[in-house]
């Protein structure tokens, strides 16, 4: 995000892409032309569809960040919606592409954008050449 509140399109595009996939998965699952490819996310990495391969890569990029791991796992009792990790993590506690469709209609672009911004800020603040006063 810029200093005056404008997001850099290059920075938010992965978040927008993943949110778009989450929002449209329920529709794609009902479309006979693409349902075969969409139904099994474990095959997306090697799928002939570039769209699904990219979604697979972005999902794993997002869920492997320290910022994702730092998100609350349990739902907050007063929260209006479940946390991102509570939605995406399966019963074993691991992020699962099989659960991505659960974010449909949940305004997930802002949630993914904040995640990317947090990861970027943490990376910048951890840089060894950063002066201590810059962190303050």
Plain-language structure description:
The protein has helices spanning 9-30, 32-38, 50-63, 66-70, 84-88, 108-125, 132-135. It is mainly α and 136 residues long. The chain has seven helices and no strands.
Strand content range: under 5%
Order of helices and strands: HHHHHHH
Q: What assembly state would you assign to the polypeptide chains in this entry?
A: single chain
What is the CA-atom radius of gyration, in angstroms? 17 Å
Key features?
single chain, 136 residues, mainly alpha, 7 helices, 55% helix
In short:
The protein is an all-alpha fold and 136 residues long. The protein has 7 helices and no strands.
Please render the helix and strand layout as text.
Layout: H1 9-30, H2 32-38, H3 50-63, H4 66-70, H5 84-88, H6 108-125, H7 132-135
């Amino acid at each position: 995000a810029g200093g005056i509140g404008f997001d850099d399109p290059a920075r938010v595009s992965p978040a927008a892409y993943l949110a778009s996939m989450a929002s449209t998965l329920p529709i794609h699952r009902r479309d006979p032309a693409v349902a075969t490819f969409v139904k099994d996310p474990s095959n997306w990495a090697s799928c002939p569809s570039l769209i699904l391969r990219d979604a697979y890569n972005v999902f794993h990029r997002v869920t492997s960040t320290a910022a994702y791991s730092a998100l609350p796992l349990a739902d907050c009792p007063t929260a209006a919606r479940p946390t991102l990790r509570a939605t995406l993590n399966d019963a074993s506690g691991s992020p699962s592409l099989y659960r991505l469709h659960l974010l449909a209609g949940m305004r997930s672009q802002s949630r993914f954008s904040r995640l990317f911004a947090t990861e970027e800020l943490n990376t910048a603040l951890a840089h060894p050449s950063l002066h201590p006063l810059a962190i303050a």
